């Protein structure tokens, strides 16, 4: 198993990327790595090149660059070269902590879509954090690869999410819910009403109905399907609220004198559990599901630990053959016709 | 000033509604109330009928009923009768804690829209909770009156929100932001890109650009404009995350033994501050802005305190003449033409 790594992407690149890759290499002897980036920098951080090959690149795509233009013009950037390695069969997967738009564009235009998938969905594994649920996590897509979606895109996400939950998370018959503005079957705009019906009609999906964004973290389903616009707004609101509450608590403790500081010391284990429960990074990076190979993007602020965890996730994806399952499912005339029918109203 | 009250709506009706009305009456001697509902029940809870007139109704709209059908068929329900009182000029405002859809429908079809406003927006006053901001609250609309919106709807919300922030919150030149999936000017789907341009072009709006749902609570602007679909998803995700985090902390304390319980006692003032900071109920109910009179809906679980606060908010709306300002602004050929132009691309 060979993973192509964009070693230049992210706030802490290349140091933390290389550290994380070395940790993953020590943990998983079956993995090999192709490390794309500035040769001098990469070699200065690399302590042991066993199973790691450095491939020099001369260009870099910055965080603010227009993605499609960047991947078209910077052919010798670490992102484009790493994606090409997957396209050419030299690597099985592509990892980056860099410019999200450029990773999406490289995935779409270089690695390529699975036949039958119109648009890949950016997939996160989120914590089912509420203490009242038995679940620990759920698959959530699209978190924002596409600002505008059609019915068939969401139906395809349901299958992609199902395969991921089955193969990578090991859930035999995953439940699937649709993010909507109400729980009842007749809720939503035209798009979501139509998608509800299509998911409910699908015999091979364990569809359990709508879920509201207020109940997302309650573990209503193993897979939550959403259009990228709504999915992005709900996920960012969740992250922003968690941060604001932690900031409020911290502010209260800092300004609460000795009493509050003592209380904090006593409650430290509780805060640590809450922090872990809400953390998304422990569950790996965001997967661009619907491409011909695993393409995974971690947060720009990722440290070596997060890089190592994400590589573990990529390894699980390769081993589970989740992508082959999706390829096989969609490479079927009947399925393609079903998907086309699901957009007749557009 | 006379307020028409649906005394039968909400989980704690009519008791808490009547208690709240009596508290508001004692606080604001200039207010008079028309209380619509079951005569026997209302009279059994009313302790002092000074400035309060009970008007018997024989029908009730339940929480699950289809709104438009309900207000058309139940002519003698408390919601329909109270809305009619406003339409007929017998009352200046309409208050309810009942079926949200039915209140929206009664507002739209009985009280009626301001000329020039295509769709009213459901407006909440949310806490600018993050400790790093100087603001205390912001106006947020549409929270979900409309699942599908056009460009001119969002532009109209910007003006309605501006007038509310000026007149009711007393902010002279309120800043206005657009909820979007990125901060940069070119972010968003077709709708949000077009709205960004229209808001930026408007000389009489203090537009400060996009805000992401992750930064909503950071007090970026006095007014956050959103389509009802996204606004609903982001608001519910915020509420759900706050609840989940509080549940996680509570669970940790309950299962953390004596140490955690002691820590909780010491940090109680901090938790109380956080709870107040995040609470939306202290800022009153949701206003259906864009109607010819104040129509305000509080949460179904409202107690007397919340009812009293919301009546204070309604009083401020009546006194400030915020509605007249909107009527005046939109009753202008130039403005109407500008709004029509803003939908040329549809």
UniProtKB/TrEMBL annotation, chains A, B:
<comment type="similarity">
    <text>Belongs to the PlsX family.</text>
</comment>
<keyword id="KW-1208">Phospholipid metabolism</keyword>
<keyword id="KW-0443">Lipid metabolism</keyword>
<comment type="function">
    <text>Catalyzes the reversible formation of acyl-phosphate (acyl-PO(4)) from acyl-[acyl-carrier-protein] (acyl-ACP). This enzyme utilizes acyl-ACP as fatty acyl donor, but not acyl-CoA.</text>
</comment>
<dbReference type="InterPro" id="IPR012281">
    <property type="entry name" value="Phospholipid_synth_PlsX-like"/>
</dbReference>
<keyword id="KW-0012">Acyltransferase</keyword>
<dbReference type="GO" id="GO:0005737">
    <property type="term" value="C:cytoplasm"/>
</dbReference>
<keyword id="KW-0808">Transferase</keyword>
<comment type="pathway">
    <text>Lipid metabolism; phospholipid metabolism.</text>
</comment>
<keyword id="KW-0594">Phospholipid biosynthesis</keyword>
<dbReference type="GO" id="GO:0043811">
    <property type="term" value="F:phosphate:acyl-[acyl carrier protein] acyltransferase activity"/>
</dbReference>
<dbReference type="GO" id="GO:0006633">
    <property type="term" value="P:fatty acid biosynthetic process"/>
</dbReference>
<keyword id="KW-0963">Cytoplasm</keyword>
<dbReference type="Pfam" id="PF02504">
    <property type="entry name" value="FA_synthesis"/>
</dbReference>
<comment type="subunit">
    <text>Homodimer. Probably interacts with PlsY.</text>
</comment>
<dbReference type="GO" id="GO:0008654">
    <property type="term" value="P:phospholipid biosynthetic process"/>
</dbReference>
<dbReference type="InterPro" id="IPR003664">
    <property type="entry name" value="FA_synthesis"/>
</dbReference>
<keyword id="KW-0444">Lipid biosynthesis</keyword>
<protein>
    <recommendedName>
        <fullName>Phosphate acyltransferase</fullName>
        <ecNumber>2.3.1.274</ecNumber>
    </recommendedName>
</protein>
């Amino acid at each position: 198993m060979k993973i192509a790594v964009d070693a230049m992407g992210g706030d802490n690149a290349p140091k933390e990327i290389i550290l994380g890759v070395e940790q993953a290499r020590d943990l998983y002897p079956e993995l090999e790595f192709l490390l794309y980036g500035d040769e001098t920098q990469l070699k200065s951080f690399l302590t042991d090149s066993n199973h790691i090959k450095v491939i020099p690149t001369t260009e870099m795509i910055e965080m603010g660059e227009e993605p499609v233009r960047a991947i078209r013009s910077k052919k010798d950037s670490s992102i484009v070269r790493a994606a090409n390695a997957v396209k050419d069969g030299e690597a099985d997967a592509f990892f980056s902590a860099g410019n999200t738009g450029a990773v999406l564009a490289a995935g779409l235009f270089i690695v390529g879509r699975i036949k039958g998938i119109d648009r890949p969905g950016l997939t996160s594994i989120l914590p089912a954090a509420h203490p009242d649920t038995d679940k620990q996590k759920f698959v959530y897509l699209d978190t924002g690869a596409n600002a505008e979606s059609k019915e068939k895109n969401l139906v395809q996400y349901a299958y992609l999410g199902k395969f991921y939950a089955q193969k990578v998370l090991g859930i035999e018959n995953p439940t699937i819910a649709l993010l909507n503005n109400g729980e009842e079957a007749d809720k939503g705009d035209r798009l979501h009403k139509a998608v509800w019906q299509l998911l409910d009609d699908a015999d091979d999906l364990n569809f359990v109905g709508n879920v509201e964004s207020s109940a997302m973290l309650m573990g209503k389903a193993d897979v939550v399907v959403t259009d990228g616009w709504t999915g992005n707004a709900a996920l960012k609101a969740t992250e922003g609220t968690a941060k604001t509450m932690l900031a409020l608590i911290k502010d209260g403790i800092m300004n609460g004198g000795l009493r509050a500081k003592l209380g904090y010391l006593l409650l430290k284990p509780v805060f640590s559990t809450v922090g872990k429960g809400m953390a998304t990074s422990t569950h790996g990076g965001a997967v661009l599901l619907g491409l011909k190979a695993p393409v995974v993007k971690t947060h720009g602020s990722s440290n070596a630990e997060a890089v190592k965890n994400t590589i573990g996730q990529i390894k699980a994806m390769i081993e589970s053959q989740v992508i082959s399952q999706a390829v096989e499912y969609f490479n079927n005339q009947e399925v393609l016709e079903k998907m086309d029918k699901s957009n007749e109203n557009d």
